[in-house]
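Researcher: I'm preparing a figure for a lab meeting and need a structural model of a single chain. I don't have an experimental structure, so a prediction will have to do for now. The sequence is pasted below. Please return the structure as tokens so I can convert it later.
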Amino acid sequence: MTLYGFLVFCLVYTIAVISPGPGVAAVVARSLARGTRGAPAFIAGFVIGELIWLTVAATGLAALAQTAQPVFAAVKYAGAAYLLYLAWRMWIAPAAAFDGREVDPSQRSSRLFFSSLALTLGNPKTMAFFLALLPTVVPLETLSPAEFAELAAVILLVLPAAICAYMLAAVRARRMLQSPRALRLANRTGATVMAGAAVAVARS
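Model: Understood. Here is the structure written out token by token.
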């Protein structure tokens, strides 16, 4: 992989990450309703999911991934179902200002990690990037372990940065809301966006 190819990958990947999709919608929705508590586990699920897809593409397992569609379909529907559950919890959440405390069992780190991991593994946008677009940018057939590590490092830097940017913007928007009516609207807006992301994943 040449320096030019690496820089092209960095540019294309950054554009792919920051462009709207089910993942961005889920991040904004959850942050708008729940703040940043549990963010490390939520972000980790996205990162691990994308590293899995990178590994699938780089090791020539794309064809195998195509034959394992029932497995990915099960993961996809499980993730979509859990996103719908989170949307329901957001919809019925009390209209109270976010104070950083998290008592809702649906917001446990393990569950947040699973939801974002399943969303990433079943996200058609992510699949298209790693299985269709990536091979046109990076010569995967000659990719060395060191070059794989470089691509993984880009994911580890760019993806969390983009997620945090969306997350902090949503949290800032929520903190500007003070009245119970406005907070209820924020909760239900987040719930609607989250449900939309779930439907988009399930129908893909």
